Amino acid sequence: MHVNSEFYVLLAVLVAAFSYVASSTCSDSRPNIVLILADDMGWGDLSVYGHPSQEWGRIDQMAAEGMRFTNFYSASSMCSPSRASILTGRVPPRTGVWNANYSSISLFGPMDSTGLPAEELTIAEVLREAGYRTGMVGKWHLGTNQYNSSDGVHLPHHHGFDYVGTSLPFSMTWHCDEHQIHIPKPPPFCFLYRGAELVQQPIDMHHMTESIVEDAVSFIEDNVDRKFFLYLSLTHTHIDLTVTPRFHKSSARGRYGDNVNEMQWVVGTVLDTLQSRHLQENTLVFFVSDNGPDVNICEEGGSPGILRGGKGKTWDGGIRVPAVAYWPCRIQAGHTSKAILSTTDLLPTFAELARKQLPTDITIDGKSMSSVLFDGSATSHEILYFYCADVLMAVRYGNYKIHFRSQSVSPPEYYDDDSTCVNGVPQDFPFLCYDCEGDCVTSHDPPLYFDIENDPGERWPLGENKIPEEVLLRVASLVFEHKKGMVARSAEIGSEPLDPSLQPCCNPPACTCNYPGKI
Ligand SMILES: *[C@@H]1O[C@H](CO)[C@@H](O)[C@H](O)[C@H]1NC(C)=O
Ligand SMILES: *[C@@H]1O[C@H](CO)[C@@H](O)[C@H](O)[C@H]1NC(C)=O
């Protein structure tokens, strides 16, 4: 076929013009990165994920203009291990952030001397090495003090963050519940920090979010001329659900919905700041929840949607989370991805975007999801592993979810039973089964198989004879290799006796303070 040379000239001009336009609006340089984490928000809690009465907001809009994930998993069903995995790209047993007492209740408290081990490489350390300025605002929950009540050995500035704004070392805002809705008498575990300093005790929950937003915005504004990474770790939508006055009764759904609406405002404020500072073209914003909803407290705990179980369990309701990636220049709008991905993928993805090689002597469980984000390909993990402490409970393999052990869900077994919830409030002390072994845990040999694609509620186990032979063999061999290669760190949580002298206390012995200029 004869094509004349003018055609090639025209083509070259078009290509050049197109790449000029592309490079002038969508820079090819390394992006800023904003990671926004929600706390205990379920897979079914946002309007864009199908919640019937939750108001549409900026996160939903961000999903509509970006990429929304339906098979995105957290590496853990609980706060501290989940956060450790997000920051390190490693499953919890490797990080040491798991409970020595074989429980999925893995939370650092004010009397713990331990925290995320200093040797663990975090996203902040990787990006700082790559020349980014790193900032953190909000909930930390990876340890506080080691030797005394104010040494702050485990706080974020020791894990790669140049700037730490208004922050909470613990996830326990429910201890700040002045109305005592979820806890009869609040113990004094309610601390607000700024940097390494305790600035308010107890926290004024009605104004805390404003301080968090102000600090997130000013961190962005202070760094418009350089690359930055912001880790905005929200207190939403964990109980106690106190909101700033303008979101009080803003939702048809009640207090939980008010809290979601406030969170949407926080996210919208951050997006508006990026836009007004002309940073939107060169910033990846990633939103994800740390684990599933606390279904034990009924409607105030959030919704896993059609998934089974919630926080603390390795049923999908505890580990499958809402996730949205937003970068209008590079990510196709309105795309829903079914790729099977994990919070451990964030570190390798961000490292790739920052063009920073990761050290080869560390086992990272995640992998970069750049092909999913930018090419729209559905490159999934072949398998994902889910732990309770250092016990392998379940895996996700293709369309299968496979349980080796499972924890009981509130009797009589299913999420759609409301007998413990009257008017959205628990009637009894909730039935908890957060153990990894013992009475409420069932071992499955052969394992329990679900076709999670067609049975997302994990209701109807399939007999082994229904599973293709090659799937059985492949899963067995992957799990065998994974276990063989697993080098767990010893447990940080519950390994040392609790030490009351480590409890933060401002203005001792009063342990109350409010330093307005510092918040
Ligand atoms: C471990 O669990 C048992 C049973 O629940 C409890 O009695 C014990 O106090 C726990 N130990 C620690 C260190 O948490
Ligand atoms: C706490 O420990 C740090 C570091 O070891 C020390 O600098 C500080 O003075 C100690 N503070 C108190 C109140 O003992």
Automatic annotation (TrEMBL):
Leader peptide range in chain numbering: 1-23
Domain Sulfatase N-terminal intervals: 31-354
Keyword line: Calcium, Hydrolase, Metal-binding, Signal
Pfam families: Sulfatase, Sulfatase_C
Domain of life, per lineage: Eukaryota
Coiled coil: none
Cofactor annotation: Ca(2+)
Similarity remark: Belongs to the sulfatase family.
Protein name according to UniProt: Arylsulfatase-like
Organism placement in taxonomy: Eukaryota, Metazoa, Ecdysozoa, Scalidophora, Priapulida
